[in-house]
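pls design
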């Protein structure tokens, strides 16, 4: 009988993956509006397909932005070409369908339930109902799970090798998946499998591609102690990946929410991030939940934790706070949740102010994860130890 092992897998994708191109376009549009008007209300979706880009959503702003120009700039930076990706910055048809934010939604955001009922002077209500989760673990120094950290590192290395021409035959679409074996106390032991798929020019041999990616991407990225004789490395398992981007797969904003967060570890409320301003609590609330979770683990009150925040549309205060330390907490989870609520202001306006969410910071977040980043400074990754008296 085969021994059942604890193996968890996570994936990440390159900046040229069609879904991620859409995320980057949506967040680039958001940043453009915030640059001219920090109080812009933006909910912007993008879809790409051969020869065409569709941009739709709801935007209310004092800014006047050339959305087509933003779209073409992003496509250019991702090296999109008609031949290999199905569309390009120069030749793509761009259709835009943007309307103002619903007055019904705006009414709840501009004047919270609490302010209407003289319960508070905090006028900003949540822009929608929503459930947000934040997760943290002591596995890595960035308090993130090993599989998603390694997957992000692989695709980042792949993108860097393409842009620097270190590997000259690479194209921009690609993805990675890492499966990590864990001990019973959730410590990463080794990589059981590594999958790396990359788009490439047609004139490179499969043997050369496998050799180069193994030696120049996989082995430099994955720590030596996590690779064993049993580790399986799969590179372009189908043998060929020439057609990519929108030519091979219709792209859409918000389809990589697990890549954006914890790779499947912890939980996810379901709301996407890209293209949404901070009044949309499924974005700002998720950042705050990560801030709480990371600081709980950094405070050594637990080894790993999932934090849930829940909001009602138009209501400023969260309607629910839930903490799960998976049995690693030094005090009961309910006590931690109560302490969090006492120590931190969790209204949308307080979160936006604390985390600086009116700034145009979002386009770089659309690839390699919205949490756990060490390459850029993010307020929700700052450690400001929470105190629990233990």
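designed seq:
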């Amino acid at each position: 009988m085969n021994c059942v092992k604890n193996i968890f897998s996570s994936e990440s994708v390159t900046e040229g993956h069609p879904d991620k191109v859409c995320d980057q376009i949506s967040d680039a549009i958001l940043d453009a509006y915030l640059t001219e008007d920090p109080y812009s209300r933006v909910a912007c979706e993008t879809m790409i397909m051969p020869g065409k880009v569709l941009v739709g959503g709801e935007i209310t702003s004092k800014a006047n932005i050339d959305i087509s120009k933003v779209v073409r700039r992003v496509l250019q930076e991702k090296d999109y070409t008609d031949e290999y990706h199905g569309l390009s910055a120069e030749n793509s048809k761009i259709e835009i369908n943007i309307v103002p934010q619903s007055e019904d939604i705006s009414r709840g955001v501009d004047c919270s339930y609490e302010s209407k009922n003289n319960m508070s002077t905090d006028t900003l209500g949540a822009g929608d109902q929503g459930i947000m989760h934040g997760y943290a673990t002591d596995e890595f120094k960035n308090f993130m799970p090993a599989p998603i950290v390694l997957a992000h590192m692989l695709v980042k290395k792949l993108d860097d090798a393409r842009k620097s021409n270190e590997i000259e035959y690479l194209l921009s679409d690609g993805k990675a998946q890492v499966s990590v074996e864990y001990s019973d106390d959730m410590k990463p032991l080794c990589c059981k499998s590594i999958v790396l798929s990359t788009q490439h020019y047609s004139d490179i041999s499969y043997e050369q591609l496998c050799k180069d990616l193994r030696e120049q991407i996989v082995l430099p990225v994955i720590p030596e102690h996590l690779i064993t004789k049993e580790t399986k490395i799969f590179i372009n398992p189908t043998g060929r990946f020439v057609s990519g981007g929108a030519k091979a797969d219709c792209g859409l904003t918000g389809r990589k929410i697990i890549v954006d967060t914890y790779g499947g570890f912890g939980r996810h409320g379901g709301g996407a991030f890209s293209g949404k301003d901070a009044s949309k609590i499924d974005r700002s609330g998720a950042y705050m939940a990560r801030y709480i979770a990371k600081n709980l683990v950094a405070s050594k009150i637990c080894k790993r934790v999932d934090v849930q925040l829940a909001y009602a549309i138009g209501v400023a205060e969260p309607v629910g706070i839930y903490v799960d330390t998976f049995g690693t907490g030094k005090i009961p989870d309910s006590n931690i949740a109560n302490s969090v609520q006492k120590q931190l202001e969790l209204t949308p306006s307080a979160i936006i102010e604390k985390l600086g969410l009116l700034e145009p910071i979002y386009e770089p977040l659309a690839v390699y994860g919205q949490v756990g980043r060490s390459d850029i400074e993010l307020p929700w990754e700052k450690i400001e130890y929470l105190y629990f008296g233990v």
